[in-house]
Design brief:
single chain; about 450 residues; alpha/beta; FAD/NAD(P)-binding domain; Enolase-like, domain 1; 3 domains; 5-stranded parallel beta sheet; 12 helices; about 25% strand; globular; flavoprotein; oxidoreductase; Pyr_nucl-diS_OxRdtase_dimer
Length: about 450
């Protein structure tokens, strides 16, 4: 054990959800006299909600600072040596140290560690296309990114926006730009938006987006981003058309930010994320942990490693890492793949496997899709809801659920998330004792209607 003024030193690389949750939890476990904690963050902010950025850009959240859970000053007051605008450029695993560079001055220095947490997050996918780096083209991952986009929107000479990609980020940013008064075109290479859903459910999202006035261009591959004489973006080109743009937002998704880990020889998975054990310890390295958007996690339904960059997981990873790095014991068993989003008042939810996920891992399955309502049909405000359910053939084990509907649709997916975690069959689900009153649900909840229909189909098969 190396000694720093009689204490061990924990170094954290990355100052958002996973990193600062880990630092804060480790501090709860051990006081400053036992454990020195140094955290490096290359941006201006810590502990912020990346998930909230589209709502800030769209104006639903008025102030940027509302997205900050804990300020740098608050972290420092808790005895964490937080160094902002400082980018870690190298991990020396054998030497137990990291090299960091001051972003503003360029000065570099080494910091040794006894224990290391890697929480480098994700980076927006930026296609290798002509013009992808032109002024007016934005990825949205950090508060700095969000501010840069808002600055561009304020200066834009026209009101035309193109969003490239129609996953969660693309769909949410398209609505945010509509709310800002822009004409919005979404260019998507998939058959339907929201590839996290099966295409038949994505079609419901497609209709809702068009209802908002968004122009959807599906089955289209962007070939280049065109610029004007001033070098700024002016259009997005596909194989067959050009779409004028005063601003372009890349909503293609994110990839794990693991260049440092790769260069250090740490183990990466098929999706490029760091591989950890149940304690979030980097495999093969006793004193290094990793969490958040830079790691791969076990999908409890498929049994395979998956890349799922979500703030819910990042905060849980941080709690587990901080407990272990602080001398305690905790584990993160895995995920079932639950996510929710919205387009205007349409709520979109999914958990477990899609049809193509089940096929990929060799599972045979039955599917059912039912139409129901959010409340008792006679109660004012009842709105339609579509539930799709996958069950394993022969065993009837629940494999996945997708829900698209109005008020009350999204959080219903939590019923299915619990059932997946518990390994319930659709037959067992039909007996779940769910809450009922006409303002909240029909007497048979939509999820249970789908489970009944799925159980019948499994019996038939």
């Amino acid at each position: 054990m190396s000694v720093h003024q009689g204490r061990e030193r924990l170094v954290v690389v990355g100052g958002d959800a996973a990193g600062m949750s880990a630092a804060s939890q480790a501090r709860r476990m051990k006081g400053p006299e036992e454990l020195e904690i140094v955290a490096f963050e290359r941006g201006h902010f810590t502990s912020f909600s990346a998930c909230g950025i589209p709502y800030w850009v769209g104006g639903a959240v008025a102030e940027r600072d509302a997205l900050i859970a804990r300020t740098p000053e608050e972290h420092r007051a808790r005895g964490i040596d937080l160094r902002l605008r400082t980018e870690v450029t190298e991990l020396d695993v054998s030497g137990g140290r990291v090299r960091a560079r001051d972003v503003d001055s360029g000065a570099q220095s080494w910091t040794s560690y006894d224990r290391l947490v890697i929480a480098t997050g994700a980076r927006p996918v930026r296609p290798e296309l002509p013009g992808a780096d032109a002024p007016g083209v934005h990825g949205v991952q950090t508060l700095d990114d969000g501010q840069a986009l808002l600055d561009t929107l304020a200066r834009a000479r026209g009101r035309r926006a193109v969003v490239v990609g129609a996953g969660y980020i693309g769909v949410e940013m398209a609505e945010a730009l509509i709310d800002r008064g822009f004409e919005v075109t979404v260019v998507n290479r998939g058959k339907e938006p929201m590839s996290t859903l099966d295409p038949d459910m994505g079609r419901l999202v497609h209709r809702a987006m068009e209802g908002l006035g968004i122009t959807m261009v599906n089955d289209a591959e962007v070939t280049k981003i065109l610029t004007g004489e001033d070098g700024r973006v002016r259009a997005v080109a596909t194989q067959h058309a050009e779409y004028p743009a005063d601003v372009v937002v890349l909503g293609i998704g994110v990839r794990p930010q693991t260049a440092l880990a790769r260069a250090a020889g740490l183990p990466l998975g098929a999706h490029g994320g760091l591989l950890t054990d149940l304690a979030m310890r980097v495999r093969g390295h006793e004193n290094i942990w990793a969490g958040g958007d830079c790691v791969e996690v076990l999908n409890l339904v498929s049994g395979q490693e998956q890349y799922v960059p979500l703030g819910t997981h990042a905060n849980k990873h941080g709690q587990v890492i901080g407990t272990n790095a602080g001398g305690g014991y905790a584990t993160f068993p895995g995920v079932v793949g639950t996510a929710v989003s919205k387009v205007c008042d349409l709520e979109i939810a999914r958990t477990g496997l899609r049809e193509k996920d089940a096929r990929r891992v060799g599972l045979r399955y039955e599917t059912v899709t039912i139409e129901s309502t959010s409340r008792a049909g006679y109660y004012p405000g009842a709105s339609p809801m579509t539930v799709k359910m996958l069950a394993e053939r022969r065993t009837g084990r629940l494999l996945g659920v997708q829900i698209v509907g109005r008020e009350g649709a999204a959080k219903r997916v939590d019923i299915a998330a619990v059932a997946l975690t518990a390994g319930l069959t659709v037959e067992q689900m039909t007996a779940l004792d769910l809450g009922y009153a006409p303002p909240f649900s029909p007497v048979w909840d939509p999820v249970l209607v789908a489970a009944r229909k799925a159980a019948a189909k499994v019996r038939e098969s």
